[in-house]
């Protein structure tokens, strides 16, 4: 039996300019909301390697560079692109409705 996902409202799409990210807290989660040329992606904000915050990272294409040790993650999939991080970062199913970015958890 599938449980109905819980939809969490995160922010206005206008709050996140293309090529940038925003830290958002919702339901006890600390998340990074990314705008990649108008497409929104959401990951955990905490780097899986240490105290870095991906919302503070450097974004190039669909990759974010952790602001702490410069590990690289794919924003779309959470996969590690370059160590020292090893563990993928969790991603969430994101969407936009009525100008608001949400995730289903
Ligand atoms: S804390 Fe992010 S790469 Fe080390």
Brief description of this entry?
The chain has 105 residues and is mainly beta. It is built from no helices and 10 strands.
Write up this protein.
- The chain is an all-beta fold.
- Helix content is 0%, strand content 48%.
- It contains no helices and ten strands.
- It has strands spanning 7-12, 21-26, 29-36, 39-44, 58-60, 63-65, 72-74, 80-82, 91-97, 100-104.
- It has a six-stranded antiparallel beta sheet with strand order 1-10-9-4-3-2, with no helix packed on it. A four-stranded antiparallel beta sheet has the order 5-6-7-8, with no helix packed on it.
- Strand 6 (63-65) and strand 7 (72-74) form a beta hairpin.
- It is globular.
- The relative contact order is 0.24.
- The mean pLDDT is 96.
- FE2/S2 (inorganic) cluster is lined by residues 47, 49-52, 66, 68-69, 71, 84-85.
Topology (elements, then pairings):
Blueprint: E1 7-12, E2 21-26, E3 29-36, E4 39-44, E5 58-60, E6 63-65, E7 72-74, E8 80-82, E9 91-97, E10 100-104
The structure holds FE2/S2 (inorganic) cluster.
């Amino acid at each position: 039996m599938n449980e109905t996902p819980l939809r969490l409202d995160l922010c206005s799409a206008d709050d996140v300019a293309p090529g940038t990210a925003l830290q958002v807290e919702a339901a006890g989660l600390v998340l990074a909301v990314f705008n990649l040329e108008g497409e929104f992606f959401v990951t955990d904000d905490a780097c899986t390697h240490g105290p870095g915050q991906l919302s503070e990272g450097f974004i190039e294409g669909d990759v974010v560079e952790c602001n702490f040790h410069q590990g690289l993650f794919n924003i779309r999939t959470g996969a590690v692109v370059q160590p020292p991080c090893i563990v993928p970062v969790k991603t969430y199913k994101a969407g936009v409705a009525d100008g608001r970015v949400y995730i289903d958890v």
